[in-house]
Please model this.
Amino acid sequence: MNRIPTPQAQIVRGIILAATPVEDGLQRLRVRRLPDMTILDDVIRLENFGLAGLPPLGSQVLLSRIDGAHHIVLAVEHAGFRFELGAVGEASLYDQWGNSVHLQEGEIRVKHGTKVVVEAPMVQLAGDVAVPGPANAVLYGPTGQSGVPSTKVFVAG
Model:
């Protein structure tokens, strides 16, 4: 019986040399394939739905070579910016500047070096709000009048 040949995929490593923002729905990378040091242009990186990121130069990639010619990125990692997780089941969204959203059992931690901006017509918090440390707070009521709180806010300090 004759078998129909199936395309073979080969998995190789590489280093990102250049990355372009998404154009025509696809992110394209320039990659140095390891260990043979071949430069690959126009390598496609698909992003998971709901997550977007432009990897830093020098990031390591895992590539699949399909049909001996085309490459696609399977995964991207940069050891210098890796987020340290503390327990099984935790997850994090992070960037190269140390900003993160860390999902842990019992809490979510949002970290940014300067400020966190929430853009919404209304922000609703259930429960008490605590602001530890020195803080300045301006409370606005339903009409936007300063000093008219619409919720209980505790400023500790």
About this structure: The chain has no helices and ten strands. The chain has a mean pLDDT of 83. The two ends are 80 Å apart (CA to CA). The beta strands are 9-23, 26-34, 39-45, 60-66, 70-77, 91-94, 100-104, 107-111, 129-131, 153-155.
